[in-house]
Amino acid sequence: MTRAFLAIPLPDDVIDALTRVQQGLPEGRAVAHDNLHLTLVFLGDVGAEALEDLHDTLSAVRAGPITLRIDGLDLFGGERPRSLWARVVAGPELGALQTRLESTARRAKIDVPRRRFVPHVTLARFRPGGGVSDGFHRYLVDRAGFALPAFDVHRFSLYTSTLYEDGPVYDVLAEYPLTG
Ligand code: 3AM
After folding, report:
1. Can you tell me the distance from the alpha carbon of 6 to that of 175, in angstroms, rounded to the nearest whole number?
2. How far is the CA of 143 from the centre of ligand 1 (A)?
3. The Cα angle at residue 119 between residues 118 and 120, in degrees rounded to 5
């Protein structure tokens, strides 16, 4: 079985800007530079045959480039955050692609978790159940206006995720163009 997910890789200048915003984070574990992405569908542990089927179907997906914007930071988990993330804003084509990919995965017999799609880039993760310090609140307040200019993305990718003690390593298994 392969732990896998579908995501949009981000341009280098966006990654660099997100890496800069991670600086000064007083607690939590920052997501490594190479691991910053916009998840579309978490696939979980997938067998070789289902992965092959999915790859064949994804190779036939035709969709155009998508314009994204990063606008603001937010938390999953509120006062006891699980993660800090950058909000991604896009037109309806992002949600349409996400819905389509989720249905494609289900048709390939992959048991996709049912979760509302909140477009985001995870920047840091926190110890479950722990609170955060005043320093962390200050970090958030100082970056309240964080936003980046719009940019276009021209592909999405199938990633594998290998879990290690010091964090996951993501590898690109295949890429699919968003060029119409
Ligand atoms: O884009 P993010 O970092 O939010 O959180 C995991 C990460 O998304 C998510 O899949 C992405 C690549 O690992 N993920 C991990 N386990 C998950 C699960 N059981 C999950 N999403 C849903 N259910």
Report:
1. 10
2. 25
3. 105
Ligand 1 touching residue 113 (CB < 6 A): yes
**Ligand 1 atom 21: the closest Cα is on which residue?**
42
pTM of the model: 0.96
* Check whether domain 2-177 has CATH 3.90.1140.10, yes or no: yes
Q: Rounded CA gap, 130 and 28, in Å? A: 10
DSSP states along 88-116: EEE-HHHHHHHHHHHHHHHHTT-------
**Which residue lies with its CA nearest to atom 1 of ligand 1?**
39
Return the domain boundaries, the chain: 2-177
Q: What span, in angstroms and rounded, lies between the C-alpha atoms of 4 and 151? A: 26
The mean pLDDT values, 10 residues at a time, for the chain of 180 residues are 97 98 96 97 96 96 97 95 97 98 95 94 93 94 97 98 93 96
Start-to-end Cα distance in the chain: 32
User: Is the Cβ atom of 57 under 6 angstroms away from ligand 1?
Assistant: no
For ligand 1, atom 20, the nearest C-alpha belongs to 42
